């Protein structure tokens, strides 16, 4: 039996043991509860935005620019208005007085250029897919058909596609002010000194290809009005932020605007946005007085959902010959696309503090230039800046190991922060509160059967097997749980990082938890119920979680950046504690005891040393009836809390990937994948397992499958799923997962974020494995995604084993399309 | 993903269908035949095709099913891929059809997509056209004028074009049974499980006393039509399969050489698999890479088929 199967068995046993039986201590937190929301999500018996039908509803379709960069010289929608079923056909000029500019909430630097970004272009288009007109009709088919009757004349301008060329003198300009969006610098320690006379310097350039976030549910918007107030339903991650931003953009007063995120089918950052379509649907319902609906097609989505990644990373690492890292320098070009959207320029900055990874070093220097191009804007995509940073440092540390002839894990051991050294102030200015990199790594190596695979690798190399084996390492950490408001303020972010929760014990003793976190598939309803059940001593089934509607959950900062549990979940816990304190005061009053003598245990408040007590349900009814309350006690048993975290959350772990590379075809097959993550204490192991699996899949997708490709005219070529390849379960290996549990020191539950960790960790593990397999061929890099053709071309340009020719990466590449 | 307007016609019988198609052809209308819809509907939804009408044959009786007809197997045009896969007759007598059908897309597509629809669509990236070529299948077409037979070698005329005339409907395919001395393999190369083949190789090999007596090799996605790798087929004739070894070339060595440096004549012959092909260029592969894959995969397919 192979090592892989052994490890798979272990993984399954671990997973199963989480599900077996009741928790030892009767607590809900830590229990592998099946998600209470899943039945309705899986069967579809729920409200997705596209399901919503309102009386008199009209349907919107958008005409989109087929040209990357052009001046609009004429738009004539009159023929479309004559088409059957068409109620309105409007162009950018029709919206000119009311559409405002789509917001950028993160002006990262003093020199940042935030160009005007009208939701519908009227004078100039700057990417293929930008909306130039729309049709509103009585059904979706008529709306789409009528688009063909709209005439638009374009005067083509030069497309700007390559970041380096865009910054060169004389480049055509995306915007009047030029193609540089901003520059941003950060340093810690003395990089000059670290690199001066360094015995080893590794210089590499990595390309983070452009990705298209592909949530299962397409974007959809419904907007409606009663004449005085407005409701926008949107498949969004951020109903609260959207409400504020729609008010600011359109001038509709915030108190007359309600935003509802019904059940939302995934986002991965792509629905952390204020989109042109949301603004325009709101304006259309105001103009027409009827409800309107728009749902994107998948191809429309590939063109116009904000894209992710797209950075060119120059990284230099200085080290001693014993492997100790002296310092790291990073010079980053980040493709903004044509405009700065909600947090576009901030994305690379979220990685700026992570290029030092888990390693100790004396100096760190980071600079980033944001660049405008005539492509779809980029913005948050699962990990947002941190996958890019982690990839660069983890690839470069492997390169250091290769340069020194050391095992990649040994180099890491010589540099990482040891578990005795926490809390640790990093060279990038963060304080990692806790961690145990040694424990996670030891566990991962055991699960993979590291030594045995190394032996097999040596054997295949000796035999010159056409299928070579490589082992890739990724020892990652990341900063998530966005975020302490004062830190966000220091980074010029436009809002705080708090979260709101309200807890109400109803007269019958049932509990409503209201959360500002807006779940879109993560399982908040289950996890928040577990937290509240433990905190209040009520049954799990007695807790309901309300979210995603600004009229029901009026305050919130929504869901992104692996923040829900570590900020929103802690807010829920704090609100429960406030309720409990209130209940204790009432119990003391009713039991005629001193509050100091009242003890709480599993839902009952009792006088110490007596059997006399009141259940929380009895107290809820008493607080509701309000017949006999302590002096100054407000009726009802409820409380609300706005919680601002004191630090980021720093999950970490060790991912190991064993990959087979068929040197004849270039095909990469992941043979086994081990992930040992440390996300602190776990509220629900099943949910964590799901997040880890999905995250790893998404990271592997970047390594092997996904890439948004524009041609040399700026046309997106990957507009369908036949061209933009998303791996399915059939394309992925069995993941072996395990956890170490080093509690976070920064919150009372000891929990850390988990939503992005798998994606951040897995991409470099896979590419490191591929490069490791091909080292004998003189290969030191394969550009992502490592498609069979790319691997083959790299090999075709590489030196055979035993040759003295220099190693190469990506040799033989000459891309058909711009990247 | 919303198709343009079209008329929808569902004839009650094959005769009626033939007449509808003939009339449409006479009046110059662009009419498309709808079977399982797994290729046609995406084209409509992406507005890459604008037919004026669809003639839906999906519910016509008599065109669905597999029959053992002595020296050949008849597969009705409307037999779904899933039904083909489940047919013991197919598995026993034309296993190459089963091997290739098992790789078509995913279970959902295989439950709707049809054997005949996939052939009549004539996508060179489809798996079944190359199989039909390798097996020398015979296509049966029906029109208002009657039936005619079209050999596989004449059926695929250009990209998405076939020898079917306006007014003709493919009603089924005769797949010859090959004897016990034949072996088969379909080698498909894809980046994801559900994707079209970047290159596919359908191999049927007749062995005689350890030598390749005859090899028929159909290539998927190596040109505007499915192809037979005729040069390689000729070169393989008479070669001893026992000479070959399962290994690939040594790192850095040329394709065609074995790990120990010894020449493998079967590999050399398969090295001519791309002769005469004009492989397409797309995001997944450029022509030189496709040609390389055709050589490597043909070797693998021939070895597997003659094992």
Sheet with the most strands of chain B? 5 strands, antiparallel
Q: Helix content range of the residues of chain B, please?
A: 25-40%
Instruction: State the CATH architecture of the largest domain in chain A.
Output: 2-Layer Sandwich
The chain-level mean pLDDT of chain B equals 92
Strand-pairing-aware structural class of chain B: alpha+beta
Shape of chain B: globular
How many individual domains of chain B?
A: 3
Order the strands across the largest sheet of chain B as they lie in space: 4-5-10-6-7
Fill in the CATH topology of the largest domain in chain A: Aldehyde Oxidoreductase, domain 4
InterPro entries (chain A): Ald_Oxase/Xan_DH_a/b, Ald_Oxase/Xan_DH_a/b_sf, Ald_Oxase/xanthine_DH-like, AldOxase/xan_DH_MoCoBD1, AldOxase/xan_DH_MoCoBD2, AldOxase/xan_DH_Mopterin-bd_sf
Protein name (chain A): Carbon-monoxide dehydrogenase large subunit
Biased composition (Low complexity) (chain A): 797-806
Domain Aldehyde oxidase/xanthine dehydrogenase a/b hammerhead (chain A): 43-158
Which features would summarize this protein structure in a list?
heterodimer, A: 819 residues, Aldehyde Oxidoreductase, domain 4, 3 domains, seven-stranded mixed sheet, five-stranded mixed sheet, 22 helices, disordered N terminus, B: 307 residues, alpha+beta, Uridine Diphospho-n-acetylenolpyruvylglucosamine Reductase, domain 2, Enolase-like, domain 1, five-stranded antiparallel sheet, four-stranded antiparallel sheet, 12 helices, 31% helix, 24% strand, FAD (chain B), FAD binding (chain B), Mopterin_DH_FAD-bd (chain B), oxidoreductase activity (chain B), Carbon-monoxide dehydrogenase medium subunit (chain B)
């Amino acid at each position: 039996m192979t090592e892989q199967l052994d490890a798979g068995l272990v993984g399954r046993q671990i997973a199963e043991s989480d599900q077996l039986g009741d928790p030892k201590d009767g607590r809900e937190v830590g229990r592998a509860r099946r998600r209470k929301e899943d039945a309705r999500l899986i069967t579809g018996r729920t409200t997705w935005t596209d399901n919503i039908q309102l009386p008199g509803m009209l349907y919107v379709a958008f005409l989109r620019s087929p040209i990357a960069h052009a001046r609009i010289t004429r738009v004539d929608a009159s023929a479309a208005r004559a088409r059957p079923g068409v109620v309105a056909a409007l162009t950018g000029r029709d919206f000119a007085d009311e559409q405002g500019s789509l917001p950028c909430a993160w002006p990262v630097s003093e020199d940042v250029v935030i160009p005007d970004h009208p939701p519908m272009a009227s004078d100039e288009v700057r990417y293929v897919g930008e909306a130039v007109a729309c049709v509103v009709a009585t059904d979706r088919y008529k709306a789409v058909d009528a688009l063909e009757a709209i005439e638009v004349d374009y005067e083509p301008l030069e497309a700007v596609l390559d970041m380096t060329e865009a910054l060169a003198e004389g480049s055509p300009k995306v915007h009047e002010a030029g193609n540089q969006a901003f520059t941003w610098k950060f340093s810690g320690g003395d990089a000059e000194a670290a690199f001066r006379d360094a015995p080893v310097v590794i210089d590499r350039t990595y390309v983070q290809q452009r990705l298209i976030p592909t949530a299962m549910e397409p974007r959809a918007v419904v907007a409606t009005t009663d004449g005085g107030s407005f409701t926008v339903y949107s498949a969004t991650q951020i109903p609260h932020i959207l409400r504020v931003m729609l008010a600011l953009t359109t001038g509709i007063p915030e108190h007359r605007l309600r935003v509802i995120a019904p059940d939302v089918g995934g986002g991965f950052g792509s629905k952390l946005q204020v989109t042109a379509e949301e603004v325009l649907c709101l304006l259309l319902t105001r103009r027409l007085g009827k409800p309107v609906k728009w749902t994107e097609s998948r191809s429309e989505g590939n063109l116009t959902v904000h894209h992710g990644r797209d950075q060119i990373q120059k990284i230099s690492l200085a080290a001693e010959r014993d492997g100790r890292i002296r310092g790291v320098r990073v010079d980053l070009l980040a493709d903004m696309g044509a405009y700065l959207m909600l947090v576009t320029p901030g994305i690379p900055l979220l990685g700026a503090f992570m290029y030092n990874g888990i390693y100790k070093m004396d100096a760190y220097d980071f600079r980033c230039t944001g660049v405008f191009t005539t492509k779809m804007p980029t913005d948050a995509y699962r990990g947002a800046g941190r996958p890019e940073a982690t990839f660069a440092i983890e690839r470069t540390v492997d390169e250091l190991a290769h340069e020194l002839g050391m095992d990649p894990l040994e180099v890491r051991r010589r540099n990482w922060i040891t578990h005795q050294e926490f809390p640790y102030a990093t060279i990038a200015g963060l304080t990692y509160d806790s961690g145990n990199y040694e424990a996670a790594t030891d566990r991962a190596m055991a699960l993979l059967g590291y030594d045995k695979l190394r032996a097999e690798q040596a054997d295949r190399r000796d035999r010159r097997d056409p299928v070579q084996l490589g082992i890739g390492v990724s020892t990652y950490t990341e900063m998530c749980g966005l975020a302490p408001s004062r830190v966000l303020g220091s980074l010029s972010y436009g809002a705080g990082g708090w979260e709101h929760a309200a807890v109400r014990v109803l007269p019958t003793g049932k509990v409503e938890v209201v959360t500002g976190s807006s779940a879109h598939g993560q399982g908040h309803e289950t996890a928040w119920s577990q937290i509240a059940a433990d905190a209040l001593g009520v049954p799990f089934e007695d807790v309901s979680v309300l979210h995603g509607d600004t009229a029901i959950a009026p305050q919130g900062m929504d869901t992104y950046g692996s923040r829900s549990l570590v900020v929103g979940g802690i807010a829920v816990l704090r609100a429960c504690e406030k309720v409990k304190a209130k209940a204790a005061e009432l119990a003391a009053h009713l039991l005629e005891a001193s509050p100091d003598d009242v003890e709480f245990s599993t839902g009952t408040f009792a006088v110490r040393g007596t059997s006399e007590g009141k259940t929380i349900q009895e107290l809820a009814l008493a607080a509701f009836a309000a017949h006999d309350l302590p002096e100054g006690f407000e009726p009802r048993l409820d409380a609300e809390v706005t919680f601002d975290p004191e630090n980021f959350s720093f999950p970490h772990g060790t991912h190991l990937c064993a990959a087979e590379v068929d040197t004849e075809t270039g095909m990469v097959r992941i043979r086994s994948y081990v992930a040992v993550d440390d996300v602190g204490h776990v509220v629900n192991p099943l949910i964590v397992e799901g997040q880890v699996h999905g995250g790893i899949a998404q990271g592997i997708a970047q390594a092997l499958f996904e890439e948004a490709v524009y041609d040399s005219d700026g046309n997106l070529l990957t507009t369908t799923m036949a061209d933009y390849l998303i791996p399915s379960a059939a394309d992925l290996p069995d993941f072996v997962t395990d956890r170490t549990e080093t509690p976070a020191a920064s919150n009372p539950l000891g929990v850390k974020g988990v939503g992005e960790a798998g994606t951040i960790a897995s991409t470099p593990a896979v590419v490191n494995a591929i490069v490791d397999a091909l080292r004998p061929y003189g290969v030191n890099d394969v550009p992502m995604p490592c498609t069979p053709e790319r691997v083959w071309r790299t090999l075709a340009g590489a030196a055979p084993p035993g040759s003295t020719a220099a190693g190469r990466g990506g040799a033989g590449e000459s891309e058909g399309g711009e990247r | 993903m919303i198709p343009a307007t079209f008329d929808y016609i569902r004839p009650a019988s094959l005769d009626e269908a033939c007449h509808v198609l003939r009339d449409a052809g006479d009046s110059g209308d662009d009419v498309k035949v709808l079977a399982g819809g797994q290729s046609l509907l995406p084209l409509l939804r992406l507005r890459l095709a604008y037919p004026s009408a669809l003639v839906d044959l999906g519910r016509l009786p008599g065109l669905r099913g597999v029959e053992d007809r002595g020296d050949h197997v008849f597969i009705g045009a409307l037999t779904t891929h899933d039904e083909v896969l489940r047919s013991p007759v197919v598995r026993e007598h034309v296993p190459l059809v089963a091997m290739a059908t098992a790789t078509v897309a995913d279970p959902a597509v295989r439950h709707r997509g049809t054997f005949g629809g996939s052939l009549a669509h004539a996508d060179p990236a489809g798996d079944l056209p190359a199989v039909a070529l390798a097996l020398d299948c015979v296509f049966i077409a029906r029109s208002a004028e009657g039936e005619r037979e079209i050999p596989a070698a004449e059926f695929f005329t250009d990209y998405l074009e076939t020898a079917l005339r306006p007014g003709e409907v493919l009603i089924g395919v005769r797949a010859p049974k090959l004897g016990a001395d034949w072996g088969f393999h379909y080698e498909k190369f894809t980046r994801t499980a559900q994707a079209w083949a970047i290159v596919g190789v359908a191999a049927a090999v007749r062995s005689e006393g350890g030598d390749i007596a005859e090899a028929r090799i159909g290539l998927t996605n190596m040109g505007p039509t499915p192809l037979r790798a005729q040069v390689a087929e000729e070169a393989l004739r008479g070669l001893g399969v026992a000479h070959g070894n399962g290994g690939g070339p040594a790192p850095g060595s040329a394709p065609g050489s074995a790990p120990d440096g010894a020449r493998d004549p079967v590999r050399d012959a398969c090295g001519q698999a791309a002769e005469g092909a004009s492989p397409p260029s797309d995001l997944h592969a450029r022509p030189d890479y496709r040609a390389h894959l055709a050589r490597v995969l043909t070797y693998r397919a021939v070895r597997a088929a003659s094992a």
